[in-house]
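Q: Fold this one first, please.
A: Sequence and structure below.
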Amino acid sequence: MTDGTTCSTIYGMRTEEYIEKLEASSASVRFDYLARVCQEVFGNARIRGSHHIFRMPWPGDPRINLQKVKGQSNAKPYQVKQVIAALRKMQEAEETEKRGEAQHVEK
């Protein structure tokens, strides 16, 4: 990711595009970009100090907790992996839902 990443480059992207972009540069993803991706996909964060906490749309108490480290512009690699895993889970749920709708329509 470069410093020139803007909001307009992420809005309207499909889940697969987010995953590909994050995997391609998982070691150098900027914190601000990762937080914007999470906000776009999962909604607004609850912010407590340096922690940005995003709730997941599935049952239980899952969440992604991104922590911005003072003086560091990149997200931590494990945070990027957590976001990728959540995006994959969301993608699977969307695909399952689409298959269910398609089967419902065929009957």
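Q: Good. Now the second chain.
A: Here it is, same layout.
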Amino acid sequence: MHSLYTTKTQNSEFLVQTNTDRGLPDPDDRRTAAEVKLKYMEKTADSVRYILESPPNFNRLTLMTVLMQPLDGVMNVSIWS
């Protein structure tokens, strides 16, 4: 599962979480790739969704994508088949 958290501000912080624990190395580079892309992209819901639905973050093993915006009370879940 991928989940990214963003705040409303342009210079927001974010958390990228994949199914590998944060304290462990990123074995498939999905977390690292998303963090690098987010660092240089505008952090809107559309740009975050684009990152989540693009390789290497989205691949044939992706079961679910979750985009959460707690400040707005929004949670968008896509279940892939």
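Q: Anything worth noting on the second one?
A: Residues 2-79 form one domain.
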